[in-house]
Design brief:
- The structure is a single chain.
- The protein has a single domain, classed as Arylsulfatase, C-terminal domain (2-Layer Sandwich).
- Helices cover 20% and strands 35% of the residues.
Length: 121
C-alpha cells in the first residue's frame, strides 16, 4: 500500500485495486481503491484539463419527480455526491494518493492526451 503524507504527518493508506482508462473530454479513467483496511471506493473519476488533475468521488444524477435528470441553467446534469471528505486537506491528500497510484500502474495515464500534447507544440 502506498502512503501519502500530504499536509499532515499521518500517512494516507491507499491501494489502487483497478484502473480502467477512458479518454473523454477531461476524463482519463476510473479507479477503484482500498482506503485503509476496511473501505473500498469504486468509480473514482480521474480528470485532467490543461495540466490540472483531480479526482471525483462517486455521485448520482439528481432527478425530478418524474425521474428526468435535473439540469442547471446551462443544461448540464446536476449530481449528488454519495461520499465526500469533511475537509479540503484530507480531500487533497486522497487526490494526490490516487493520482500517484494510477501513475505507478499506468505511467502517463493522468496526463494530457497525445492530441493535447501535440496541440501545444
Amino acid at each position: 500500500m502506498a502512503t501519502n503524507s500530504g499536509a499532515t504527518s499521518e500517512p494516507f493508506s491507499l491501494q489502487l485495486l483497478t484502473w480502467t482508462p477512458v479518454t473523454r473530454n477531461t476524463l482519463r479513467g476510473y479507479a477503484s481503491v482500498q482506503v485503509g483496511k476496511a473501505l473500498v471506493i469504486h468509480d473514482i473519476a480521474v480528470h485532467n484539463s490543461s495540466g490540472a488533475r483531480w479526482v471525483g468521488l462517486p455521485s448520482k444524477v439528481m432527478t425530478t419527480k418524474d425521474s428526468a435528470p435535473r439540469l442547471n441553467d446551462k443544461g448540464k446534469r446536476l449530481y449528488l455526491p454519495l461520499v465526500e471528505w469533511r475537509d479540503k486537506t484530507t480531500a487533497a491528500r486522497f487526490r494526490d494518493a490516487v493520482l500517484e497510484q494510477v501513475e505507478q500502474r499506468a505511467p502517463g495515464a493522468t496526463g494530457p492526451t497525445p492530441a493535447e500534447r501535440g496541440a501545444g507544440q
